[in-house]
Amino acid sequence: QVQLVESGGGSVQTGGSLRLSCVASPYTATLMAWFSQVPGKEREGVAAIYVADKTYYAESVKGRFTISQDNAKNTVYLQMSSLKPEDSGMYYCAGTTNAVVEGTIEADDYNYWGQGTQVAVSS
């Protein structure tokens, strides 16, 4: 059973930055991703990274967010910059060993989830 633990959320003003971290134990997923969710809506894929460091991003965050991983620390990061109020939400780390259509970030493809960390961006 893979356990994912997120940290790094918080409250920032528009234009600010945050770095989310997700420690995986064990670090065996072939694909890791970050999702965001606001009340009443489904989880939306934000960014994904393969074992070989290939990355994918939602259009809304391209150029502002960067996903990376440190295999030695079993950790995936999401560097969030130029934050906007619409980036606010609960951010979940997810992992999967399933085959995924390349370039997609769909919640149904992921079988491991963290508990989430809250991000609030004020205007």
Textual characterization of the structure:
It is a single chain. With 123 residues, this protein is an all-beta fold. The chain has no helices and eleven strands. The protein has strands spanning 3-7, 10-13, 18-25, 31-37, 44-50, 55-57, 65-70, 75-80, 89-96, 112-113, 117-122. The strands form two sheets. Strands 2, 4, 5, 6, 9, 10 and 11 form a seven-stranded mixed sheet that branches. A hairpin with a 4-residue loop joins β5 and β6. The mean pLDDT is 95.
* Radius of gyration, taken over Cα atoms and rounded to an integer in Å: 13 Å
Q: How much of the sequence is in beta strands?
A: over 45%
Question: What structural category arises from helix and sheet content?
Answer: mainly beta
Largest sheet properties = 7 strands, mixed
Number of DSSP-assigned strands: 11
Q: In percent, how helical is the residue content?
A: under 10%
Low-pLDDT residue spans: none
Q: Given the structure, what is the number of helices? A: 0
Tell me, what's the shape?
Answer: globular
What is the succession of H and E elements?
EEEEEEEEEEE
Task: Write down the overall mean pLDDT.
Answer: 95
